[in-house]
């Protein structure tokens, strides 16, 4: 049976990934690694949690030894827009934190999941149907940490035989934990604002296409990749994966099918817009589909229906 540590477990992905891992492997087999923010609700009640500042290798080592960890899903990171305000912090957590995890993976023979991102690409990358293997010259600190992370994870696999695997996540849309300072946060905020105010002022301009996916698919991707037959993996860090390519107008049009009076306008945030302009419009994820069966289940219509239903129920209960 696996013993799993999830770092960054109170974040947008980490919080839902931890709960799904507990469902699949057992509550007591999945440790929620937290730093400054304490877990609440199901995350706190369904299994163990421990303080893990990933920039402190002794923090991580103590949890690995205490719970006999054999697998780390390393989600702790600073997202792209915050990373432009705090580049030193983004590097420290994004790279030094990962380095600590990889050094411990050598010592304890751990398997490591690393979430890279479309942010690992830059303006000189082919932005349409972005290939799996292509130029990566990101212009955000977040992107620099992600491309560095991809290379570190591949190095530890090739040099030390560590079982490192990763995906390049697109923007992820969810209705449990709000994202914290990403360029793609608009695609979550638009649904909450639609329910609360029937209107949204978007920080990314009309026609800003980015790859996106719904959280259930993002969670399945991480677990399916880590459970995949390693003999079939020609790539490891990190696989392009996507479910849809969206711009604010596309999302708004789908919301209007449910809410005809919904209004979208714009107040462009130049930092987020510059980052978004340097990222792909759409990725080629054929390698993930061929090598480990990646196959997203949610399209824009299904995601929008579920988002509006779940957020609408929260709003009706006064939980927003
Ligand atoms: C961000 N949500 O916007 C994250 C993600 C692809 C985007 O990495 O920074």
What brief labels describe this structure?
single chain, 320 residues, alpha/beta, Rossmann fold, UDP-galactose 4-epimerase, domain 1, 2 domains, 3-stranded mixed beta sheet, 14 strands, globular, binds (3R)-3-hydroxy-L-norvaline
Largest sheet: 7 strands, parallel
- Spatial arrangement of strands, main beta sheet: 3-2-1-4-5-7-11
Q: Which small molecules are bound?
A: (3R)-3-hydroxy-L-norvaline
How many DSSP H or I helices? 12
Radius of gyration: 19 Å
Number of strands: 14
Low-confidence residue ranges: none
Topology diagram in text:
Layout: E1 4-7, H1 12-25, E2 30-34, H2 41-45, E3 49-51, H3 57-67, E4 71-74, H4 80-85, H5 87-108, E5 111-117, E6 128-130, H6 141-160, E7 163-169, E8 171-173, H7 186-197, E9 199-202, E10 210-214, H8 215-227, E11 239-240, E12 244-246, H9 248-256, E13 263-266, H10 270-277, E14 282-283, H11 286-292, H12 300-316
Parallel strand pairs: 1-2, 1-4, 2-3, 4-5, 5-7, 6-14, 7-11, 8-10, 9-13
Antiparallel strand pairs: 10-12
